[in-house]
Design brief:
The structure holds 2 protein chains of 2 kinds.
Chain A: H1 9-26, E1 41-46, E2 49-55, E3 61-68, E4 72-78, E5 81-86, E6 98-104, E7 111-118, E8 126-131, E9 137-142, E10 147-152, E11 164-167, E12 182-187, E13 193-197, E14 202-209, E15 212-220, E16 227-232, E17 238-243, E18 248-254, E19 260-267, E20 276-279, E21 285-289, E22 294-299, E23 305-311, E24 318-321, E25 327-331, E26 335-340, E27 352-356, E28 362-365
Antiparallel strand pairs in A: 1-2, 1-28, 2-3, 4-5, 5-6, 6-7, 8-9, 9-10, 10-11, 12-13, 13-14, 14-15, 16-17, 17-18, 18-19, 20-21, 21-22, 22-23, 24-25, 25-26, 26-27
Chain B: E1 3-6, H1 12-15, E2 33-36, H2 40-52, E3 57-60, E4 77-80, E5 96-99, H3 104-115, H4 129-134, H5 142-145, H6 148-151, E6 154-160, E7 166-171, H7 177-183, E8 193-199, E9 210-217, H8 223-238, E10 249-256, E11 262-269, H9 280-287, E12 309-311, E13 314-316, E14 336-344, H10 350-360, E15 372-378, H11 388-391, E16 401-409, H12 415-429, H13 467-472, H14 476-486
Parallel strand pairs in B: 2-4, 3-4
Antiparallel strand pairs in B: 1-2, 5-8, 6-7, 6-8, 9-11, 10-11, 10-15, 12-13, 14-16, 15-16
Helix pairs in contact in B: 8-10, 10-12
The chains are: A mainly beta, B alpha+beta.
Chain lengths: 366, 500
């Protein structure tokens, strides 16, 4: 059985050094040469558009469509629809963000806008969204307004008016923590909502009932750490959090009653306030980025993390593991980067630039 | 403990309603509960409960808000302050206190009977002190004494700190002075829940006043006469009306749409010493309109009640209890409304008068404009004391006229017609050379205008990126700093609240 190891600075440097060989080999981002099966379409958000790509057999993204929209900062696919959060501070002349629903053409992958609806008043600059397991609504984390919104779907995927608002308060010691800033939202297997609040150093669990959110539990994280990214282990019993303001990761046990405990905290080198996470569907590896390179973690049997590999050249603001588990996609400054994941060892192949794109900010893959 | 009225309470349907029948615009925007507060402690407890529950509080005192600021709060809680209506000094405290739930009519009566002082507030007796005073409320003696906000020397206000804790702040010139200044003119729903207004002193109530009405039937109106009336009125307040001797004279042109049948100029007057022993100023003003041959008798006005409906075999009218006289309600019938406002620094131009005439005689098929009026209020006098620029955030201290555009109707089917009328006249008025190219369509502060009045909020102005300058002029940045400091989580917000 694998044993957790303490993540020391010395150990990290060693790992970084070994990975730099891999990084050096891939530093020119050559194009991928082979790929089998897997996802067909990718949707990548940039400042003013959603770019729809078909994914070729060699893994390269081939641009099919560019759909103009406003700051698609988060997107997810559910039931043949793409749901998008527009990270804007004003919509319809009022201080609020918005969300959109698109129909995905099953054959071509192309998008057709179904509708765009406003978030609640003061719900500015949403950052994340997650679709409920029953596929009938989504919860949106709203950074600017310090709130969560519930947006219901009609049978055809069309968005309805906001049905529930949960307004947050709170602050932290960091200069970026003057107010609550909800940053991540994830549904658990029981249909509860797990959230991270970068502004108030809080993790929360909500229940969603009749279109409204009710607080079920609150947990404080280290003051000034700024939890931003959050993923749930595929078995549903471990939560991983990337902290943007102090360069750390934490993980928690998460039980069937929605209770978090058993925190493990890991320090990582960081630049700026990026904190991205992605987890492999097999539940054996976690990928993180704190602005200065991608870090690969082994997930041990007890759910805790052990540092493994590092890819220094990939400075990702967001990470995404394809549903088939064969690729890690990283959104970097000027491109979408793909790293093949070895199905046996989970190690990463040389980073490959699959789609040149300035400032990609969100991704969804089908 | 506050009284919490929830959806299953029989009082809820009454208490959730806004005075303007347009709000909430749809059921999804409606509140889920009303907290009736009887004390500051009640209010603090209710507010803390709302914050802890992740709800949004909106606040109502008199409920006269023109836009949907308190009514649009999906599943939120409306904190109702109407029973926080105490008026008068506390034991051992010589200062005057007015609870935010006091209506102006109640405050005038009690301040007069108890202390022989008054508030220079508005003419609508059922308006609540809460929103009125913090928005810079004014009225018939404001040219003599200034605005209500000018006299405020302290506010007790509940704010929510960065951690979500409710705090009662006593704001004075030496404690939280920035918040006190912001509460003197910024309008309600921005920083917290004001509980009390405090006044070190208040102006003496006039001993007596003279009033007069000049009626100008539309049937006898010509554009030439119309122009003379407007020009005489505006000209007076642009010149003679600046003389302190005249500051006890307050006048209004009730510029009704032709469908109403008449225009009216009403005047209230007293001399600066609060007496009417000498009416020279009033006579002088009234004589300006002699050539226009006013009458003292109003043509019959349309009845301001809805038609009786059929309920079974008999005709009868249905009212919610809150709308009946027994429950203290006053609103029936034409409850839907839309408003706009303008501060003017100069007399009307010929072009502007032409725009008024055009729209006040305009016919929109199927739309009853008999409850459509531009109320043109005299302004200035003591309001324009420049020292108040630093003490309050009301920057409009050079204006001579303040206008309120109003249109009222009964049925949602008429919404579009009424809203089109008021938007059209406003857009036409501010499409002239008085407004620079970048600010066309609005009375942007400049040589001619001083923007708009936050107590007459108009969400149409949100179409313009410069809307904060219309309402707050150069003080918006200061207000944003206050907002960040005292409401960092933006707990208190509405469509036109200060955006940090």
């Amino acid at each position: 059985m694998k044993q957790p190891i303490k993540f020391s600075r010395r150990h990290f440097v060693q790992l970084a050094g070994s990975a730099s060989l891999l990084s050096a080999a891939g530093s020119r981002f050559g194009w991928a040469t082979k790929r089998t099966g897997g996802p067909r379409f990718a949707y990548v958000g940039s400042e003013h558009a959603i770019h729809q790509y078909s994914i070729s057999q060699n893994g390269r993204f081939v641009l099919q469509q560019t759909m103009a929209t406003a700051r698609p900062v988060a997107m997810t696919i559910s039931g043949g629809h793409l749901y998008v959060a527009n990270g804007v501070s004003q919509y319809g002349n009022l201080p609020r963000g918005s969300v959109e629903a698109y129909t995905i053409n099953a054959t071509t992958g192309q998008l057709v806008l179904k509708n765009r609806v406003p978030l609640s008043l003061s719900a500015t600059s949403p950052t994340d969204l997650a679709v409920a397991p029953n596929g009938r609504s989504m919860v949106v984390a709203v950074r600017g307004g310090g709130a969560y919104n519930v947006v219901p779907f009609a049978e055809d995927g069309r968005l309805g008016a906001v049905s529930g608002i949960l307004k947050e308060t709170g602050s932290g010691p960091h200069r970026l923590q003057a107010a609550a800033h909800p940053s991540a939202v994830v549904f658990d297997r029981e249909g509860r909502v797990l959230t991270a609040d970068q502004g108030s150093d809080k993790l929360s669990v909500f229940t969603l009932s009749n279109g409204e959110l009710v607080v079920s539990g609150r947990w404080e994280v280290p003051a000034g750490s700024g939890p931003e990214g959050m993923v749930l282990h595929p078995d549903g019993r471990r939560v991983y959090v990337a902290h943007a303001l102090n360069g750390s990761l934490s993980s928690y046990n998460y039980d069937e009653n929605g209770i978090l405990d058993g925190r493990q905290t890991l320090r990582v080198p960081a630049i700026g306030t990026v904190a991205a996470l992605a987890i492999h569907p097999a539940g054996e590896t976690l990928y993180s980025s704190h602005g200065n390179g991608a870090q690969v973690w082994r997930i041990l049997a007890n759910g805790s993390l052990e540092p493994w590999l590092r890819v220094d050249t990939v400075h990702a603001r967001k990470l995404h593991v394809t549903e088939d588990g064969n690729g890690l996609l990283a959104l970097c400054n000027d491109a979408v980067i793909r790293m093949e994941i070895d199905p046996a060892t989970r190690s990463l192949a040389t980073p490959v630039k699959v789609a040149p794109l300035s400032n990609p900010i969100s991704i969804a893959v089908s | 403990m506050a009284i919490l009225v929830t959806r299953d309470d029989p009082r809820f349907n009454n208490l959730k309603r806004a005075r303007n029948g347009r709000w909430p615009a749809n059921p999804a925007e409606a509140i889920s509960s009303v907290a009736l507060c009887l004390s500051a402690a009640d209010t603090a407890e209710a507010l803390q409960h709302v914050v802890n529950a992740g709800q949004r509080p909106t606040i109502r005192s008199g409920g006269h808000c023109y836009e949907d600021f308190y009514a649009n709060n999906p599943n939120g809680t409306l904190i109702d302050m109407s029973m926080m209506n105490h008026v008068g000094a506390l034991p051992g405290d010589a200062r005057y206190r007015v609870g935010v739930g006091a209506t102006l009519g109640q405050a005038y009566q009690e301040l007069y009977k108890l202390y022989n002082v008054t508030l220079p507030g508005g003419t609508c007796a059922s308006v609540g002190a809460g929103g009125h005073i913090t928005g810079g409320g004014y009225g018939l003696v404001s040219r003599l004494y200034g605005t209500t906000a000018d006299w405020v020397t302290g506010v007790d206000i509940l704010t929510v700190d960065s951690k979500g804790e409710v705090t009662l702040r006593t704001c004075t010139a030496t404690q939280d002075a920035d918040l006190l200044r912001a509460c003197r003119g910024a309008g309600g729903g921005n920083f917290g829940v004001i509980v009390d207004y405090v006044f070190e002193k208040l102006p003496p109530a006039p001993q007596e006043v003279m009033s007069s009405n000049l009626i100008f039937p539309w049937a006898e109106m010509t554009e030439e006469k119309f122009t003379k009336i407007f020009d005489a009125f505006g000209g007076y307040f642009a010149t003679r009306g600046k003389d302190p001797e005249t500051w006890g004279l307050f006048s209004i042109i009730e510029a009704n749409h032709r469908a109403r049948g008449y225009l009216r100029i009403s005047v209230q007057f007293c001399n600066p010493d609060g007496t009417c022993r000498n009416t020279k100023v009033l006579d002088e003003f009234l004589s300006l309109f002699d050539d226009c041959k006013p009458s003292a008798v109003s043509p019959a006005a349309p009845v301001n009640n809805p038609p009786a409906e059929s309920f079974g075999p008999h005709k009868m009218t249905h009212d919610l209890w809150a709308e009946t006289g027994a429950a203290g309600g006053v609103r029936r019938g034409v409850t839907r409304a839309k408003y706009k406002s303008t501060y003017m620094q100069k007399n009307f131009s010929a072009r502007e008068i032409g725009v008024f005439y055009k729209h006040l005689t305009r016919v929109i098929p199927g739309i009853d404009l008999s409850h459509t009026v531009v109320e043109i209020d005299s302004y200035g006098g003591a309001i324009n004391r420049k020292e108040m620029l630093e003490e309050t955030v009301a920057f409009q201290r050079s204006s001579i006229i303040k206008m309120q555009f109003q249109t009222y109707w009964a049925n949602a089917a008429e919404d579009d017609g009424h809203i089109a009328w008021i938007r059209d006249i406003y857009k036409d008025l501010y499409a002239g050379p008085e407004v620079d190219a970048a600010h066309q369509g609005t009375p942007f502060p400049g040589e001619s205008y001083q923007g708009c009045y936050i107590n007459y909020p108009d969400a149409d102005m949100l179409d313009y990126a410069h809307w904060p300058q219309l309402y707050y002029g150069p003080n918006y940045e200061f207000l944003q700093q206050v907002k960040k400091k005292y409401d960092p989580n933006n707990v208190f917000h509405h469509a036109m609240s200060i955006r940090a």
